[in-house]
Design brief:
Helix content is 21%, strand content 37%. The protein is of the alpha+beta class and 217 residues long. It folds into two domains: 2-55; 66-216, Glucose Permease (Domain IIA) (Distorted Sandwich), CATH 2.70.70. The longest helix has 21 residues, at 8-28.
Length: 217
């Protein structure tokens, strides 16, 4: 495992604030009943934030014909939806909600070529709400497979997320299961698939990025 390259500053800031708080505790607070529980909490927060921004090593289940989960989390939507940003047609949409405890690194869902990517500023509604897909800050990416299928996905900011990182560039060749970005704090992924895709997950399922197949094309 390794830290995502765009999170070094965030993790260092957490460590710096923690160091200041620990200094204040040990320098100005005399009660061990206060110092040690707060010290344990601060250390736990440092460990949690380090793990939160890690990029895990995973086995890769996806390919150009099998779609793997972009992120860890829970399936909250499986439905038909009109994708109006780029595809401009009705698709099957699968949404993955990430909470505070999930790894927030994101991974390419299929192998293919990036044919579109765009960042959209927006609101920060709670990511599990339906209107978040259209109104929240998000980044859109579309991948065309060697078989000519298009897989479109959105990285959505949530109520606390304030930064979306996407490594996509138009014309880039990508491999399913390699890292494509990261979203800091609670957020969601919407994946738009062709109507003839075979969906392999259901609402309420827990999925793991790279390892869980969500559809076959």
């Amino acid at each position: 495992m390794r830290l995502d390259k765009n999170t070094y500053g965030t993790v260092l800031l957490v460590y710096a604030i923690s160091a200041v708080l620990l200094f204040v505790l040990f320098r100005f607070v005399d009660s061990p009943w206060v110092v040690w529980p707060l010290t344990a909490l601060i250390v736990w927060i440092c460990g949690w934030q380090t793990a939160f921004h890690m990029v895990p090593e995973r086995s890769r289940a996806g390919s150009s014909t099998e779609v793997s989960a972009v992120a860890d989390g829970k399936i909250v939507h499986v439905e038909k939806a009109f994708e109006k940003d780029f595809l401009k047609r009705e698709c099957l949409m699968v949404s993955i909600y990430m909470d505070f405890w999930d790894v927030h690194a994101n991974f390419w869902p299929v192998t293919g070529t990036v044919e579109y990517t765009m960042y959209h500023p927006g609101e920060h509604f709670l990511a599990f709400k339906p209107k978040a897909s259209e109104e929240n800050e998000h980044t859109c990416t579309c991948i065309r497979t060697a078989e000519g299928k298009e897989v479109f996905f959105k990285q959505l900011a949530g109520g606390f997320a304030r930064r979306i990182v996407c490594y996509a560039k138009e014309g880039m060749e990508v491999i399913a299961g390699e890292q494509c970005g990261i979203i800091k704090f609670g957020s969601r992924i919407d994946i738009f698939l062709p109507l003839d895709a075979e969906i392999l997950v259901h609402i309420g399922d827990t999925v793991r990025a790279c390892e869980t197949l969500i559809a076959k094309l």
